[in-house]
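Record minuted for everyone:
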Amino acid sequence: MKPSAASAAVDRRWLLPLAVGSALSLLLLVLLTTFPLPFPSSAASRSPNLFVEHKLAPSPSSSSASLPRLAFLISGSAGDAGALRRVLLALYHPRNLYILHLDAEAPDSDRAELSADLASHPVVAAAGNVRVVDRANLVTYRGPTMVANTLHAAAAFLWTDAGKGDPEWDWFINLSASDYPLVTQDDLIHVFSKLPRGLNFIDHTSDIGWKEYQRAKPVIIDPGLYMKKKADVFWIPQRRSVPTAFKLFTGSAWMTLSRPFVEYCIWGWDNLPRTVLMYYANFISSPEGYFHTVVCNADEFKNTTVNHDLHYISWDNPPKQHPHYLTVVDLDRMVASDAPFARKFHADDLVLDKIDEEILSRGPDMLTPGGWCAGTRENGSDPCSVIGNTTLLRPGHGSVRLQRLMTSLLSEEKFRPRQCK
């Protein structure tokens, strides 16, 4: 039986779509078997097999339900051992990790005494979460050796070979002996536990203005790379043009960086961090530009920035090379800023005693109290001489202030509009 004209017309209607579909399927099959699929853009989704060594694979993100762990670098120089110790005790929490660095200008005896003192501290020794850099780096103010020192500490926190180190940290925070906290660690951990673990708190701008002529175009040499004694950077007559391969950013040298971004800078599965590091090796005040330029030129991280350094700092207007030293007169403004840290302080200034007493509830030469303190207060004993449950937090007024700052920084008006512009 022959098909009718109507049924033949219906059959012919499907011929063109069928032919087109078959051709597209064949083309897709050829493409899939001939060309590899592109790698995913997110570092967290990369397969460990893509890396030459297993340790180069980015670590999985911590569960958002767990409390974060913070990794602190606290740096100082000659005469800063006492201040370094005080900052550590004010910042201390058994959950966190700490590296203390007295640069090579400080005598070896200062490092040895600091190490011995901390080794004899009952809580610090029991927790085993504080390390003093034994082979100190020579750090030049305004030079790239400051960046190298920061990267050194970050790499040490990441090093887990042979069971050394601890991989379970979430943010890396660099401070100096002239910094001081304005919140307790319970306050800080409590507020950070509510945040996405990939955020990078880094004050930054691409509007470098006068810095292009005075910092980007000159070429400097950091004597800390070649000499045994500290000296200021020196300049060479040649000048250079601004790079075109990446956009320059500048900002504060004090930052709170996410573990994924630190891994990106250290493990280096992309060449950008190394390229930028080589450029900043001859850049004046490179600590105020290296991490900023890397994070804002990396597609994986440029949308993770929070444009704030989490510090209260008092500057002249226009800013001079150094900020003001803070005193008791500045205490109300520090607290009103809602920032968790402040700088600069003279060692053992009266204002530090006020912060200990009124904000941290910390006694002289004691640790800042927290929910982890399991000791007794009987007969004037220090309750923080015994480590209890380190996941137990007792946030106070500082957490309210810090939460207010975070709410403002992550608002629609401030978060996206201020990222890497």
About this structure: The two ends are 74 Å apart (CA to CA). The domain at 70-209+245-418 is CATH 3.90.550 (Spore Coat Polysaccharide Biosynthesis Protein SpsA; Chain A). The chain has a mean pLDDT of 84. The first strand starts at residue 70 and ends at 76.
